[in-house]
Amino acid sequence: MRTLVLDIGNTAVKAGCFDGPLLREMAAGLTPASVRELVRRWQPLHVIVASVAEAAVLAVEELQDLVPGQVLGFSPGTTPVPLRNAYATPHTLGADRLAAAVGAAGLRPGQDTLIIDAGTALKFDLVTADGAYHGGSIAPGLAMRLRALHTFTGRLPLLELPAPDATIPLVGDSTTGSLLSGVVNGTVAEINGLVAQYQMQYPGIGVLLTGGDAAFLAARLPPRIFVVPELVLLGLNRILVYHVDK
User: Which residues does the annotation say bind substrate (predicted)?
Assistant: First the structure.
């Protein structure tokens, strides 16, 4: 069964083309026109749309005219998922957080799992072995930290992240070096510290890293943290199949 997953984030529109559970193709930076073209080329039977942005790239009603099966608009507060949602305010929960949790539970059934989503925001989310999502934490992402330092000071420059293999010294000997050390090394220390706290409470917990900055951070984190770039897409597809099979 061919399905299409659309993940509309704060900075990009991503898509995943699935054949059953297998992710055959990924695309990012999509426009309404390129989404329509992707639908025509892939010819999915069913589609799921998840958005954390103000407006979806295409309305569910428009997509419904392009596919023969179901077009599911995913809303964490109302859409049933194959996971117990223990979040106290599900109506405020981001679609990407819950989708990543569903994806993690599918990859690691019956196991405690910590998800680190390093995107616009740095998010930690906990899925326990009993198949429940509990929530976690939200903090500024790398680019947001750099932008905040520029925006809320008088003289600090606005920096871009260097290449993933760039060396970030602990002691910055320039303003640029000091900014990168504070943001990058500080974020890495934050991640390592929080992971250690989760490991104390949940011995043997697995850690999955996803998001746009996952590759950049992975080079600076212990190998016990596994990178799964497509985690949100996998979770959304699992949610869609769950509804189609009901």
Answer: 87, 94-97, 175
Write out the catalytic residue numbers: 96
The alpha carbon of residue 124 and the mean position of all alpha carbons in its chain are separated, in whole angstroms, by 10
What is the rounded end-to-end Cα distance, in angstroms, of the chain?
A: 15
pLDDT along the chain (246 residues), means of 10: 89 90 93 90 95 64 88 92 96 94 98 97 98 98 98 96 94 97 98 98 98 95 94 97 89
Q: Are 84 and 131 in contact (CB under 8 A)?
A: yes
Q: Does 7 show up as a binding residue in the annotation?
A: yes
Which residue intervals of 4-81 are DSSP H helices?
Answer: 32-42, 60-64
The answer on whether 187 is annotated among ligand-binding residues is no
Q: Which two tokens stand for residue 182?
A: 């504070």
pLDDT at 182: 98
Q: Where are the beta strands (DSSP E) in the chain?
A: 2-8, 13-19, 22-28, 46-51, 71-74, 84-85, 113-118, 121-128, 132-140, 206-210, 225-227
**Contact (CB, 8 A) for 199 and 192:** no
The HSE-up count of residue 75 (CA atoms within 13 Å, CB side) is 7
